[in-house]
Write a structure and sequence with these properties.
The chain is mainly beta. It has a single domain (3-32, 44-196), classed as sav2460 like domains (Lipoxygenase-1), CATH 2.60.60.30. Helix content is 9%, strand content 41%. It has 3 helices and 12 strands; from the N terminus they run ββαββββββαββββα. The protein has helices spanning 13-16, 120-123, 188-196; strands at 3-5, 10-12, 22-31, 47-54, 66-67, 79-81, 95-100, 110-117, 130-139, 144-151, 161-170, 173-183. The strands form 2 sheets. The chain has a 6-stranded mixed sheet, with no helix packed on it. The protein is globular, with a radius of gyration of 16 Å.
């Protein structure tokens, strides 16, 4: 059984999973079902998982360092997105990203896991309308869950983007921090723009 992370909590992946080399980051969510006449106009929620690969200055060097539904694999081959889920239907993980830690290029110091709501402003959607959202890390060597971070939708009214977690190098080992910051941004491109400033 993995650790249930709290916002801001940090863990050592080396300590929690000493033989870890291949990591799966799973993201899942459910949509709060509306009843009555409102349900007739409910549009599917399309949450998108992405990873931003940052350098030692927490900056993004080019769009090739963003792994998302439009770029399913990092050029190094160390990070692979397993595909887009358009509705959040189904049990367990709705989207998965595989990270091969030993093959991550040395110039990448931090991986930021982000979830955005596709077309959120146009569809008038935010994270308060999402429930049971979580991010979890799994050691693919033994399929054991290392850690899980659960998001509460009611705390994120008006927020359309979520910085979920960071996996980062520190003293030659990989650690994870649960972030859970909700932002009012219109899509992944605005997140990318923020991290590319003065890169």
């Amino acid at each position: 059984m993995g650790i249930n992370l709290q916002k801001g909590q940090r863990i050592s992946l080396k300590k929690e999973a000493p033989s870890l080399t291949r990591l799966m980051c799973g993201l899942g969510w459910d949509i709060i079902e509306r009843s009555g006449i409102g349900s007739m106009f409910q549009t599917d929620f399309d949450l998108d998982a992405s990873v931003l690969c940052l350098n030692e200055n927490d900056k993004l060097k080019g769009n090739s360092n963003v792994v998302y539904f439009g770029n399913l694999s990092h050029q190094s081959g160390a990070i692979t997105h397993l595909g887009d889920n358009l509705t959040g239907e189904g049990e367990g993980d709705d989207e998965q990203i595989i990270v091969d830690l030993p093959n991550i290029p040395s110039q990448i110091s931090k991986l930021v896991f982000v979830v955005t709501i596709y077309d959120a402003v146009k569809r008038k959607q935010d994270f308060s309308q999402v429930e049971n959202a979580f991010v979890r890390l799994v050691d693919l060597g033994n399929n054991q869950e290392i850690a899980r971070y659960t998001l509460s939708g009611n705390d994120y009214q008006g927020r359309t983007t979520m910085l979920l977690a960071e996996v980062y190098r520190y003293d030659d080992e990989w650690k994870m921090a649960a972030v859970g910051n909700g932002l009012e941004l219109n899509g992944l491109q605005e997140v990318v723009n923020y991290y590319m400033k003065s890169a």
